[in-house]
Structure formats: C-alpha cells, structure tokens
Amino acid sequence: MESTAAYLAAARGETPSHTPVWFMRQAGRSLPEYKEARAGTTMLEACRNPEMTCEITMQPVRRYDVDAAVFFSDIVVPLAAIGVGIEIKPGTGPVLDEPFRTEKDLDRLRNLDPCDVPYITEAVGLATAELGPKPLIGFAGAPFTLASYLIEGGPSRDYVNTKTLMRNDPDLWDRLLSKLAAICGEFLRVQTEAGASAVQLFDSWAGSLSEADYRRYALPYATQALMTVPESTPRTYFGVGTSHLLEAMTDTGASVIGVDWRTPLDEAAGRTKGRVLQGNLDPTAVFAEPEAMLAEADKVLAAGRAAPGHIFNLGHGVHPTTNPDQLKRLVDHVHETTAR
Amino acid sequence: MESTAAYLAAARGETPSHTPVWFMRQAGRSLPEYKEARAGTTMLEACRNPEMTCEITMQPVRRYDVDAAVFFSDIVVPLAAIGVGIEIKPGTGPVLDEPFRTEKDLDRLRNLDPCDVPYITEAVGLATAELGPKPLIGFAGAPFTLASYLIEGGPSRDYVNTKTLMRNDPDLWDRLLSKLAAICGEFLRVQTEAGASAVQLFDSWAGSLSEADYRRYALPYATQALMTVPESTPRTYFGVGTSHLLEAMTDTGASVIGVDWRTPLDEAAGRTKGRVLQGNLDPTAVFAEPEAMLAEADKVLAAGRAAPGHIFNLGHGVHPTTNPDQLKRLVDHVHETTAR
C-alpha cells in the first residue's frame, strides 16, 4: 500500500515519512531549463499554454525530487482571464493598462467562470497525470495583494493608492475585495477540481498592514477565498513580513501558515493556534557556502519541531540568481536528516 | 525661565508640556518650498551647501511648528565626503559608481574627519542659531543600511549581495561594518559638536534580517555608532519592519526606539525595556480624510501612553505626494489634545 505523500501527511498534521520540502517559485526563473522552455514566449502566453505550464511545473520535481509540485502561474492570470488589461513585464512584474480607481472600474471585474480558464484545467490535468502520487499545490494570489496590483497599476513600495482607497471608500473597497475573493476562490477551486490536492494562497503584501487594518481590510476576503476550497484540502496561507500578523492569519481558517524568515518557527508555533507551519530559510541563505547553508537549514528544522507539523521551504520565493545545485543539496539534506 | 523643549523632555523620559511631534522626511520632497529651493541643484550639492541645508531644515519648522527640526542630509553624504563615488538619482536613490565587493574595496573607505565635512558643521551652526531653543536632531544612516547601499550599488529589494558577503566572509564583513560604524558615529558627533541636541540613527533596512542575523551582523555596529554620541544626548534608533527586532534594538543602547506603523506602541512598550518610543502613524494614513486621519492619530496617542515617553511621528518617512496641510492638521491636533 502506498503511504500518504509526505507533503499531505505533514499538511494534515499527521506523521510523514520525512519532513517534506518544496520551494516557493521553484518552477521558474532560477532554472536554466525554464529559461529554455520560455524562450520567445511571454509570461501570460506561457500560463495559457497547458503543455508549457505542465512542463514548467514538472521541471523542479524532476531536478530536485521535491515533495510537491506547485502549479506554475501568476497571480494576475485570473484577472487577465476575465478581460482586465494586464501585461507581465520581465524584471518588473504585472503592469495594468488602466489602474482601478473608482466605482466604475468594478464593471471591469466580472466573476471568473471555469470556461474562462480551460487551459488551467487542462494543465492541472496534465501535471497531476505526470506527478502520479506526488501532490500538486494549486496557486492563487490573495484578494488584498491582488487589489494592490489592480489599484497601484503595478508593483509598489508603499501601497499609497491602495490604502487611500481602503480608508476613504470602505464601501467600494468591500465590493472590490469581495469580487476579488470570489475570483481567487474560483481560481483555486478550478485547480482542485482538476486534480490539485492542496492549495496555497499568496498574500505577499499583507505584511504592509497593521494588525487592525489587516483584520478589517484583508482578512475577511482571504477567508472568503480559502473557504471556496473544501476543508479536507490542505490550505496554506502565506505572506512576507507578517511577523506581527501571525495570530490574525490563523483566523482565515488556513490549515497551514507560511512563515517568512524573520520569525523563528518555534516562536511562530506559539502564536498560530496549532497550525502546521511552512518555511522558513532566508532565501539569501542559499548563496552561502553549502556547509553554512545546511547549518542554517538545521536550525529551521530544529525550530520546526515545535510546530504540530512542518513543511520545509524558503521564507519567500527562490531568488532568480539562485544556484539550483544549492536547492538540490537542501532537498537531499532535509530528506536524509529527517527520514523516520 | 524657559522650560525644556517638549521633544527633549519626552526623549529623556521627563514630563513634557505636550506630546512632541516631528516627521521623518519632514524636510524635503513633499514641500513646494523645498522643490523651489532645490531647483537646478543635485541632492549632494544641496547637502554640501550650508545655506541651502539650513533653509531646507528650517522649512518644515516654519510651516508646521513641529517640536524639532531634523538635519537635512542623506545617509550617503559621509561616504561621498571620503571620496566614495556616489550619485543620488531622483526617484531611485543612491547609486554607486563601483559597488563594494572584495577586501580591496576597504581601501576606498578611510576614516571620516570633521575637515571632510565643513559644510555640515556650518549648516548645523546656521540651523541651531535660527532654531533658538527648538532642538535640532542630527541625522545618520546606520552601518548595516549603509553597507547594503555600498554592496548592492543602490536600493535593493532583497539584499542578496549584502547577505551573501556577511555570511560568506564574516571577517571582511566585520572590518567593513566597523569602518562604517566609525564613519556614521563621527558623522553624528560632528553634528552634536556643532550644536545638534539629539540624534537619530536610521537603520532603515535592518528589518530584512532575522533576529539572530541582526544580533550578529548589524546590532554591534549600530551600537558602536551610537556610543560615539555622549550618553546625555538623546539617541533615537529607527528601522522599518522591525516588529521582530524590537527587543534586540534596545540592546544598542539607544534611549528612544522608533517604531514603524506595524506594531502598536502599547505592544512595543512591553518589548522595549522602558525605552521612550517614537512613532507611529502609517504614512499612508495622511491620505485619508482629515477626520479619519485624526482618529488614527488618536489611537497612536492612546497606545503611546503605555510607554515611559512618547514622541509622535509617522511610522516611516513622509511620502513625496503628501499634502502638507494634512501634516499641519496633525501637528495642531497632537499639540491641542495633549497640552498639560
């Protein structure tokens, strides 16, 4: 009998055969085979091409033997799918043709229908067929983070327009975020329906909010998006610089909390009400010499023992200039030292 | 008899006549009179022109009647003064001709001598003469933050090169940071000698480090820089996104801790060992309607009562597009509602 995949066992708080490991952004920009596969294709074209999406999703699984694949996509894919004018500029990120500013802009946001994203359903099907028992983690951006791109029109350092809208027109904010939550939730549901066995919701920029603002302006919508996915499906919720939000983040109903490298996992365990934790090696630690990197990884593993379950990961996405050999060393090390 | 300026009283943990208020980046880019004064002058030229520096330092004091002036400068001014090739690009920030990468680059960093910065001594003298009893806060960047600009060659999102150097060559890191600490410290000392009655050390990017890395790679050098200033001089130490570092930051010996908007001051008070606190209205809250902004300010004032002393400020620098009328409203409100 095949035992439950280590990732799923850990995510459910059961005892896995070893500490599972995968990397945020493992599929993509740091891999030479990715650059080869992507040559001549824009990011959105790649996300709409099921064969290419499947190939890119599989590449890190083949190279590293990580315990889970993460679905290759971009957080703005569902917005582009409903007709919002967006381009993903290399080296910059998503850039909107017209930023969201007023009530009228709500008309540009209709509900996402599975028929809008047949390429997602197909790509998930191809990937899960190739993965066999290895889990695929579905991927979506969270409503607050998505709203920040929509309102700023692109990446931002301080989210002035986003926070101004949320404070000055809470009613419009609520209508916008509710729509985005439905879109994010549906984007995750499409992936789980097609075979993804877990999901991760990326609220990358939620850490820019104080806890009071987070609870009022971001948490309800992240919760709504996560609730779209069946409770039996492991649901990970992640943000950067959220040391001050960890307690609040558990109130989304997420079963796994992704922690960035700023908060040691043993400390995070005391503040996340029995949630399984994911993380949290500093993504820059993989630029250290192998021995120093593995020593840091050992600290993460030791701290992770304080949590009811631990999925090893970096504390944020793989940096584009990361040496893949270092990630391979990390995977092997985590597997070897935690095998039961 | 003139009573002690509210800022100094609060910074020393004494009882001020009212809660003092000033704004990080009050002198500069958000003020129309600043843009006028600076027209046709580069940032470094402005920092080396005593009359212009004094004028810019005074502008927000005249406009807002804040309780302290902050010396107008840039964190790379002392580096430029010892011959490091640096340009401050509008909209980007400091950009180095040649980033710091190896031991050889140490030769480019000699000690700062007061004779290197006669324009600082002169500008401080002019400003303190004009300020009268109102205090001038001396300004410097902290060694870690300065190192990040030196090593990355400019602003960065993830500090990969900086953290790689600190992990892979701790000996070179120590020599570099010790030199920078001496330079920062001397830059502050020149200002206090010339008449500044307090200082603030800006470790803006220290929050990118875990507490363990911060304690090893940043804290000792910030401490060294602050120790250059007499203990009787109020010394404020500030960083962004340092919710996880507040305890550690008090170990620098700073008498005032600057807190960003992510951590409520009552919570911060419980973690900063009796230090006076400065902060911490979200800089984006000044884009809200006046009433909503003042309601947020009241929450900050209420939370600040839990600290042994409170200096009202934003949680980070004034955003360039801030409406000065809103800052004026804030100052008046803090003064009116806290007068004893």
Please characterize this protein's 3D structure.
The structure is a homodimer of 340-residue chains. With 340 residues, chain A is of the alpha/beta class. The first copy, chain A, has helices spanning 6-11, 32-38, 43-47, 50-64, 77-81, 118-131, 143-152, 160-168, 170-193, 211-217, 219-227, 246-250, 265-269, 290-304, 324-338, and strands at 69-70, 86-89, 93-96, 136-141, 198-202, 235-238, 256-258, 276-281, 310-314. Chain A has a single domain, classed as TIM Barrel, CATH 3.20.20. The first copy, chain A, contains 15 helices and 9 strands. In chain A, the strands form 2 sheets. Chain A has a 7-stranded parallel sheet with strand order 1-4-5-6-7-8-9. A two-stranded antiparallel sheet of chain A has the order 2-3. In chain A, strand 8 (276-281), helix 14 and strand 9 form a beta-alpha-beta unit. In chain A, helix 7 (143-152) crosses helix 9 (170-193). The longest helix of chain A has 24 residues, at 170-193. Chain A starts with 5 loop residues before the first helix and ends with a helix. Chains A, B: One of its GO terms (molecular function) is uroporphyrinogen decarboxylase activity.
| Class by SSE composition of chain A | alpha/beta
Number of strands of chain A: 9
Biggest sheet: strand arrangement of chain A:
1-4-5-6-7-8-9
Helix % of chain A is 40-55%
> Which assembly state applies to the chains in this document?
homodimer
